[in-house]
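Predict the assembly for these two chains.
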Amino acid sequence: MKNCEYQQIDPRALSVLPSSAQNHTEKKAQRPRRKWEVFPGKNRFFCDGRIILARQNGVLPLTLSLIIVTCGLFFAFDCPFLVKHLTVFIPVIGGVLFVFVVLSLLRTSFTDPGILPRATPDEAADVEKQIDTSGSSTYRPPPRTKEILINQQVVKLKYCFTCKTFRPPRTSHCSLCDNCVERFDHHCPWVGNCVGKRNYRFFYSFIISLSFLTSFIFGCVITHITLRTQAGKTIVQAIQESPASVVELVVCFFSIWSILGLSGFHTYLVASNLTTNEDIKGSWSSKRGAEDSGNPYTYNSIITNCCATLCGPMPPSLIDRRGFLPHDEAIPAVSASEIELPPFTAKNDAHMEENCQDISLSCTA
Amino acid sequence: MAETHSLQDLQQPAVSSKVFVQRDYSSGTICKFQTKFPSELESRLDKQQFEETIQTLNNLYAEAEKLGGKSYFEGCLACLTAYTIFLCMETHYEKVLKKIARYIKDQNEKIYAPRGLLLTDPIERGLRVVEITIFEDRSIGSGR
């Protein structure tokens, strides 16, 4: 009370809502926070929000070290011999492929895959109002779906309980990252990130260039050992002279099977404008007879599908990691949790009453 | 019982409600908003003006996402430079987004603000909705 009467009016506070003038002047003295610092998903941010990674970045360090070590061994042990006996272009091609692979990998890992920001409390309330027709006693009503027509095909949109919004078509919620991702393909542990609308082209160029790189190194190492044996030595002697080649052979041999297979699979997906998620679930498989239950997103032309997926316009990041938090944004975070509380307080109150009764009984006893 | 009243307290209009214009997915995953006129705006705005605003926004987003020679060229160039070109160049989509932001600001100043409404740029809501904030009619005047 005393504070209200004798408070000196701070001219700067006039630009702020008077209801929270005191709190806000205190907050203004603090460093303004960026939106990535209050991001609700399970992601990690570096370089002040410029770089985004999944919290479980899986085996990304293993992937990087496998690539770097194998290429390092190649350049150190195989290239000198091959340059002398064949051509200087071998390390040049190897170098270009290596740079391309590493850049694509880093780009895939550090790019926002197309994360959809969660609904604001007002939006969530509006959606709830539209769905909630009868007041049900249970907190979790059955999963809500909305059917829409896309290119004369019925598509079901599911309601995401975490993000509090109806998921757009082709969007899926990744449980590892706790985010809805647009055009969700899969969560790749090797890359340590989800693969979605914004980084699918980087992922595709990564696996294609990696296929070329592993095949190239494999071929060069085989050539290297063959050339050594042609000079009159046995294979064992050749290997003893260049033991690193064996390591490279083993790594490349096992990688080639999986990487080439993956490249082929994703080439098929790109050509038919499908995602891994849709393919695995069989969303558009024509097992329903002659009904046109085909993919509604395809352009019915392989070239157009490829161009649209890989060379289409680059959509922007929707989560605005580096934007500054406006001061009233801090309050919605509190009210969001408040929306969650009411259904539970009914139960808690009943529980508390019982506890109170128990205590009163024990006191009087 | 001394209370400090700032000038803002008397001039700041209170938010009455918010209307959300949802996405229209009938043509696929391209960014397009429904042109259905919300009933809450009937007293404030002409149906035709609203439809014109939404239709212009839809056209701008279609321009941003258009598949054509220019976007393919940009995509191929980016691929050849191992996507490092995006570090120094603004994408076509980003340029159109700036155009959209200018258009929304313009619409707010000319049409929506005089009627006590405010359009929020959809990019700030993850391109999910066009949020229209309806402010309390100031002519009623509240002493709060």
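Chain A has eleven helices and ten strands. The beta strands of chain A are 43-46, 51-54, 115-116, 145-150, 153-160, 165-166, 172-174, 179-181, 186-188, 193-195.
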